[in-house]
Design brief:
The complex is a heterodimer of chains A (about 160) and B (about 425).
Chain A lengths: L5 H12 L8 H12 L4 H11 L3 H8 L13 E6 L2 H6 L1 H12 L12 E6 L11 E3 L2 E3 L4 H12 L2
Parallel strand pairs in A: 1-2
Antiparallel strand pairs in A: 1-3, 3-4
Chain B lengths: L16 H6 L4 H7 L3 H11 L11 H6 L9 E7 L8 H8 L1 H15 L1 E8 L4 H16 L15 E6 L9 H8 L23 E5 H13 L1 H5 L9 E8 L5 E6 L2 E2 H8 L9 E5 L8 E2 H4 L3 E2 L1 H6 L8 E6 L4 H15 L5 H18 L5 H14 L7 H15 L1 H6 L4
Parallel strand pairs in B: 1-2, 1-4, 2-3, 5-11
Antiparallel strand pairs in B: 5-6, 7-10, 8-9, 8-11
The chains are: A alpha+beta (about 160), B alpha/beta (about 425).
The structure holds flavin mononucleotide, iron/sulfur cluster and FE2/S2 (inorganic) cluster (FES).
Chain lengths: ~160, ~425
Amino acid sequence: MIQFNEEAMRQYQAILKRYPEKRPALIPVLILAQKEFGWISQEVAEYVGSLMGYPASDVLSVATFYTMLRKKPVGKYHMEICRNVSCWLMGTYPCVDEIKRRLGVEAEEITEDGKFSWNLTECLGSCGTAPAMQVGDRYYENLTPESVGEIIEKLAND
Amino acid sequence: MIKTLLMNIDEPDQVEIGRVRERGGYAALEKALRMEPAALIEEVKASGLRGRGGAGFPTGMKWSFVPKNSDKPTYLLCNADESEPGTFKDRKLMECDPHLLIEGMAIACYALDCHLSYIYLRGEFEFIAHTLQKALDEAYEAGILGPSVCGRDYALDIYLHLGQGAYICGEETSLIESLEGNRGYPRIKPPFPATHGFLASPTVVNNVETLCALPWIIANGSAAYAAMGTEKSKGTKLFSVSGHVAKPGVYEVEMGYPLMDFINNESGGVPNGRKLKAVIPGGSSVPVLRAEECEGVLLDYESLLKAGSMLGSGGMIVFDETVRMPEALSVIADFYAHESCGQCTPCREGTGWAAKILRNLIAGKGKRPDIDLLLKIADMMEGKTICPLADADVMPIRSFITKFRSEFEELCSN
Ligand SMILES: Cc1cc2nc3c(=O)[nH]c(=O)nc-3n(C[C@H](O)[C@H](O)[C@H](O)COP(=O)(O)O)c2cc1C
Ligand code: SF4
Ligand code: FES
């Protein structure tokens, strides 16, 4: 059975303290759980639910509303590239082609070594430095097919 | 031109509190703390400041709807969900001058007698969360936040709360639902957040830029702020400009600044010797303007409305002559179909079908009646839903089709 380690447990307690009631802590706790366990599986939902006193179905009904809470595993580096207006104008799709060519997988598939996956996403609030892409807690901006290739190479050697 | 928001942006180390205090940061908060909360609300009313999140509702008036002497606590929620396509102005403020936002929030909280406040930050901006958290930690350490704000008998806690990738959570009642730990379904109004908001308590939701305008207003007085801008659009406003311009970015201008000057000067004009084709002045939810329609238009709420569009969030997207408008509309329609929360049938079905019909048109598989069908779908969505997301899809659909109809017809087989 999965459970938070000591450090995650300490963070869990700190999250609860930030809210006047328990329920508003649910999504922050799910974010923490995703950091610990990778994605929100049935098992993770059951664990978070048991910890906070909610049925797993309730936890999952919330989690599935939010695209950043993942319903299935992703690669170590999950590249989310913006497909919205400004990025589309500045050339998202040539970059997407390069990602596909380099990784050899379609959207939401994971490369064999488990390192990469990718998907299209909506406006990242980076329209002035378009096209833009998010990988974990980092943004990559002013992308070109060349720079996307370099980013993949760098991450592959990480 | 006077700057009330980006005044410190070019100074180094605006994220470090020592530097911030040296340049007079938090002096407006200290001044506000010496005033009566009621007088503070009057001051903000007199400034004419209107909400910068998109709706343009007068900020002081919104605050005055919060009941006095409620037995429940009052909450201020900072809307930092910034997800309207074309908009990246709040990000600039938070990245470059996080203490300005904290100061603005503290002023608003004091005016509203609020002791617990949250910044609802879109989850993709996790890298900004690091900057904001550092600034919050510094503010606590300096005694600006915590049990005794600037040494006064007034306690205030501000916490960060991350969203998780849902555009709809920028709508204020959806934001509240989401903060409460639920799916971000917008609520039917009334009751309004001012009386029944977060945890059924009085709540004010304000945009980042709105809150960042407060320190200047308090420091310089409402009259100085109201002296800028037009009759009904006071002060200065940030515009984020992207697309086909030489210098995309975030610029602060006085309300009433000419749109074409903004495109040609601040934004550096349309590059590569190409001609301007169209402008979306306020984020993807507002009607598009043809190049000819931009002539003489001023950047303020009333002028843009008169021109048939809206100021919205100030997220300006510029199209040059190479842009195929049906494709651009399809990109926009896909966005609203993806982001509809699904509660209202007209929105869930309407955004979905509009997106499908447009994809079909672009693929060359459309027929002429599809164009009128799109307009009919727009009619069926407009004004019939819980929140304005459906209307936000109606405006681009209707304006793109009526203003660039021949481009849509060219795609049809009969
Ligand atoms: C679909 C939708 C999305 C919205 N997104 C945002 C947003 O990302 N940021 C924001 O400040 N306001 C957004 N708003 C407006 C908010 O509902 C609300 O009017 C605003 O936060 C109030 O703050 P203000 O009065 O300071 O502008 C959105 C509204 C709708 C209908
Ligand atoms: S209009 Fe759309 S987004 Fe808004 S509440 Fe209804 S279904 Fe949800
Ligand atoms: S359109 Fe891509 S970041 Fe806004």
